[in-house]
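Protein entry
_____________
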Amino acid sequence: MGAPRTGHARGVAQRSCPPLRGRHAAGASQRLVPRGRHRTPRRRGDQRHHRRRPPRIRRGVSVRTHLDHTERVRAVLDPAFAALADETELIAVHDPALAGRVAAHAVVSPIPLPPFDNSQMDGYAVRVADFGEFGPGARGVTELRIGRTTAAGDAAASHEAGTAAPIMTGAPIPAGADAVIPIEQADPARFTELRRADDPAPRGTVRFRAAPAPGAFVRPRGSDLAAGAPLIAAGTRLTPARIGLLANAGVTELAVHRRPRVLLLSTGDEVAAPGTPLGPGHVGDANTPMLTALMTGLGAEVSAHRAPDLPDAVERVLAAHGPAADLIVTSGGISAGAFEVVREVLTDHGVEFGGIALQPGGPQGLGYWDPDGARVPVLCFPGNPVSSALSAELFLAPALRAAAGRPERLPVDTRELAHAVDSPAQKHQVRRGRFDAAGRVHLTGPSSHLLADLAAAELLAHIPLGVDHLPAGSPIEIWRLDV
């Protein structure tokens, strides 16, 4: 296996963004350095002797990395999302809208779970003492009279000594019984008489070939949770199982944090609205529904709007919808070319734009939209669909997941490359890919317009800044999309 090859980290245009500070402050290019020199085996008769060359590092080149930008984004977003903790709303436990929300307060169980001793099986409730000299598990036929039947939902009855009372799963254990024998262990292995409380008394008998242990197939009161035990902690994301637990404990409504409200603004004269026939030079609007789906899936309330490449149009959307938002996300109009309308409008509000050492997703914008002191955080992504989607995953999704009580990152793994791959040394490259049958990683092309590629991807693979080549068999960090 060949070594990772590092290349010259040529300067990345800084545009108007100031240098950063922090643990990821811009500095020398990152690199992969082998621990020593490696030799390839010499074949018989082969006089060639190959040696891995150490990676070439160009020192002193300052770049702004995606880690720098991540740190800056979190410094803007985290305080804004933390402020939402002061705003709560009550939602009924049986309301489907509760799923995925975040509990504002801790909740303890008002009752023990289960609230009474109940049967784990369909069978017969018995007293172990009625098996006489046969101790628990001992063999020997015991014949008992059939008692009154208890079904799920009945009130607890009193157990008559010397009887075996038919009982159904979930039914309360009759007072005085201390074990349940499953119907399959009875002789006959079926219910022959089922007489409820108001029915005539049963007359038959049933036989058992072994004595049960005390407590056999009995679910004791409070064996799941004691009264006063925690049900959920503050900040817990409400999954289906947690909602079921709350309902089981008799909780009827819950205070949850308000969802982040996001204004999504997509721009571009070339972008056609849904249902509009594509004219010359036009493309369908992928970014608006794609980013809306991502943010909604991570717990945000999204108000999505489109604007042509006209400053007045962008200003109108911001003025109408910006003051109610906790975050403004834009797509398109931020590069260095002409007609970059988002950059033109928001630069006047103090939003900073510039390039980072990332492919795709190099152009980025970050700051605040602050008319009348509103100070709404702004995150600006490129317009190419793959660039926009990956920018959202790298920079926005972790903060939304944290606010929604989820793990911040996609599942991370390290796998083996199935083939060699080249990457620009001056960029941290994020490639899409899939697994082969052996679990190795196959990468697809790097272009930022390959949306079908992204839709079919099982993983995002990361090639670090400073590395321009990875041979087949190299380990590579991946973020999994398939789990």
Remarks:
- The first helix runs from residue 66 to 82.
- The first strand starts at residue 5 and ends at 6.
- The mean pLDDT is 86.
